[in-house]
Design goal:
The chain is an alpha/beta fold and 309 residues long. Helix content is 33%, strand content 21%.
């Protein structure tokens, strides 16, 4: 006689009867009827997750990871500057910032340039070594190994990290203890209220276990942070993007790129016209989706900025 595995309680609210939502890559994604949070049940073991993230393929061509993480340095450094500006507006001074899941250390490097004292945690040995060289600061495999005293950090950041954690509430509570009163916790995560996640979930690339284990909306993200004793200051939705362009626009954009090139391949002096055309097609497509599905969310990501009370 086969015994059924006990369902995993909701890691946000403890709800004991999550309902099946979607199966991806051999993993079951469930939804908590009490709070709406979606998560992988059961989650991979700690050993399986460690092996997954320590595999160099995760940052370089892995199926559920990045095509080439290091190639995005310029773009990620630009993101880091904007994020640090938002954090700096919430604090009286630039002090010590811990970046959890720091990868190659691009955020740490920008923080140091702006006068912060950065610390990093990164499970991948290869990425951690790269971050130490780039940012010139301590980077350890786990936060515990950094020896941070409670109540001493000015900011903790988790960029595209919380969705990788099997127990996000436990993780945020643990990190919040390291913040001084008034300190800021900031994070980003994919937006599970995005149109594709709602209407075409089988095609949403962020449903990608074992890389992603938790799937947040602004409501579940707010619930998570407030349940950990943090005051949510801002929950901006970012990167408006149409799920697709009409066929005619896709075809015209492809032909234009072939003729003039783009920023990546400047075939003619008119290469910039492709970028303008792409933006116009994007705006037209977004308008079409909003007419067809009023109130639909077309933002790819969410950021959150919260203070320790």
């Amino acid at each position: 006689m086969t015994t059924m595995a006990e369902p995993t309680p909701c890691p946000l609210c403890g709800g004991a009867e999550p309902r099946p939502h979607l199966c991806r890559r051999g993993h079951e994604i469930v939804r908590c009827p009490r709070c709406g949070f979606m998560f992988v049940s059961p989650p991979p073991s700690p050993a399986e997750l460690a092996a997954f993230y320590r595999d160099p393929a995760y940052f370089q061509g892995g199926e559920a990871g990045y095509v080439n993480y290091l190639a995005d340095q310029s773009w990620l450094e630009g993101l880091a500057r904007g994020r640090l500006e938002r954090i700096e507006r919430l604090l009286p001074r630039r002090g010590t910032v811990l970046d959890v899941g720091c990868a190659a250390g691009f955020f740490l490097s920008v923080a140091r340039e702006r006068g912060w004292r950065p610390l990093g945690a990164e499970l991948s040995d290869e990425m951690a070594a790269y971050a130490r060289r780039l940012a010139g600061c301590p980077v350890a495999p786990s936060v515990d190994q950094l020896g941070i005293a409670p109540g001493t950090l000015d900011a903790v950041t988790l960029w595209e990290y919380v969705e990788h954690v099997p127990q996000p509430r436990e993780e945020i509570e643990r990190l919040a203890t390291l913040l001084r009163p008034g300190g800021v916790l900031a994070l980003s995560t994919p937006n599970t209220a995005y149109w594709t996640a709602i209407h075409r979930p089988e095609h949403w690339k962020e449903f990608s276990p074992p890389a992603h284990l938790g799937f947040f909306t602004d409501a579940t993200l707010r619930r998570l942070l407030e349940s950990c004793g943090l005051e949510v200051v801002a929950l901006p939705h970012l990167t408006p993007r149409a799920p697709s362009h009409p066929y005619a626009l896709e075809r015209l954009l492809g032909q234009l790129r072939e003729l003039v090139g783009s920023g990546a391949s400047r075939r003619t002096p008119l290469w910039w016209s492709f970028g303008l055309a792409w933006r116009a097609a994007e705006l037209a497509s977004i308008a079409g989706y909003r007419l067809r599905w009023p109130g639909s969310d077309l933002h790819l990501g969410i950021e959150a900025y919260a203070r320790k009370r």
